[in-house]
Amino acid sequence: MTGEAEQRPRFGELRPVPPPETLARLTGAADGTTWTAERLGGDLGYPNGGMWRVTADQRRGDGPASVIVKRTGPMHLGTFPAWRLRADPADPQWWGKEAAFYASDLARTGWIEDVRTPRAEIDDHDGRRDLWLEELSGIPGSLEACRQAVAGLARWQVANADHDQPWLTGDWIARHVERQQLDNARTLAHPAWPSALERGLAPELRMVVAARVTEPAEIARRLAEFPALLANHDFHNGNIGRAGDGAVVVIDWAYVGPGPVGHDAGHLALTLEPQGAVDPADAWRTLTSAYLEALIDSGWTGDPDQVRRSMIISNQLRLGWWIDALLAAADQLSDQGLAARSRLLIFLAGLLISEA
Questions:
Q1: Which residues form the domain of 309?
Q2: Which residues lie below 8 Å from residue 142, measured CB to CB, with a gap of 6+?
Q3: Distance between CA 318 and CA 210 in Å, rounded?
Q4: How confident is residue 1, by pLDDT bands cut at 50, 70 and 90?
């Protein structure tokens, strides 16, 4: 693409030994250990240059033996169209944002004792910026871990309301929807509808598509009605786990930037995996309550009803592409899986109606 460096294949060479500071700060590996690197994920469809689990064969004490490496850089922007990173520092998906976040005070300031970001080391070499991150367990996070995470997030957001980092660009949601290239007429004409409806897909979803807002400027206008706080923008329980010290840890800050208050908490409630394990209404009530309570306890003085509306409307505007993804995958889904996704979409539509 224009302005981008020639892209390299995913993965590529990895350092045979972690940088010394990484060895000391992130692992319990013994001096002189050898390392084994395991690739995580495949070659296509990822918004980064590769991920590895790097494991030591010798340990000292009870520290962790493994770390995770995530590759970023101007030649490793990824291949997934809507999620891939961008070369322009003004873009809300600038490739250097995650490393800048981990290197800044934002990664450490405002968190509570039992919720934090991962310990991280940044390694620049050969045109790459590798992020060495502590490995977590308990992924995807349980509902209780998610409850703790939204409470910690709220306190962090209030503590950093006056951020001034120039790389924290906004309008991520509007740009993300634009990059999904949604077209309501095309979605309504999708050939998977008849079969999916026969198998139990809710027919009301066609009305949801017909009313879907896809114009980025209109999305940005509607979101501007709500107060903005910093948001992770990829806040789901696949990015929430526990560290060895028991803390709940939130990972993946590639899209951090200003966003509508409550957006992350609402997104988390709607994206819990495994799908169907927690009733969406229960998740929504639990996480909304935890988030609002933590906002207020942190000194936030806004209107709780406005937060609730923001949680609903920002996610309804953002997640319109879910119906397209469901139709594209309908033939591969079991009837149970199709029904679970249909219920979630109807639940989100119902939240919007309740706020109308």
A1: 143-355
A2: 237
A3: 15
A4: low
Strand-pairing partners, residue 228, are 260
Per-residue tokens: 92: 């809300």
Q: Give pLDDT tens digits for 343-356.
A: 999 999 999 877 65
Taking the whole predicted model, whether its pTM rises above 0.85 is answered as: yes
Distance of CA 240 to the CA centre of its chain: 10
Which pLDDT value is given to residue 354? 74
Neighbouring CB atoms inside 10 A of 189's CB total 9
Residue 17 CB coordination number (10 Å): 14
C-alpha distances (whole Å) from 178 to each of 137, 160, 216 are: 35, 28, 6
Residues with Cβ within 8 Å of 225's Cβ and at least 6 positions away in sequence, in order, are: none
User: How many C-beta atoms surround the C-beta of residue 200 within 10 A?
Assistant: 12
Residue 250, H or E segment: strand 248-250
Residue 1 maps to a domain: no
The total domain count for the chain is 2
Q: For the segment 246-297, what is each residue's pLDDT rounded down to a tens digit?
A: 999 999 999 999 999 999 999 999 999 887 788 999 999 999 999 999 999 9
Angle at 322 between CA 321 and CA 323, to 5 degrees: 90
Question: pLDDT tens, 55-78?
Answer: 887 766 566 778 899 999 999 999
Q: Is the domain of 241 the same as that of 333?
A: yes
Please state, in angstroms and as integers, the Cα–Cα distance from residue 247 to each residue in 104, 113, 132, 143, following that order.
20, 8, 18, 15
- Please indicate, yes or no, whether residues 149 and 298 belong to a single structural domain of this protein: yes
Shortest CA distance to 37 belongs to which of 54, 21, 25?
Answer: 54
In a domain, 289, yes or no: yes
Tell me the per-residue pLDDT of 157-205, one tens digit each, with 9 for 90 and over.
999 999 989 999 999 999 999 999 999 999 999 999 999 999 999 999 9
Q: How far apart are CA 131 and CA 228, in angstroms?
A: 28
Residue of 269, 304, 305, 243 lying closest to 67 (CA atoms): 243
Q: How many CB atoms are located within 10 Å of the residue 69 CB?
A: 21
The residue behind tokens 């994920």 is 41
Whether 4 maps to a domain, the answer reads: no
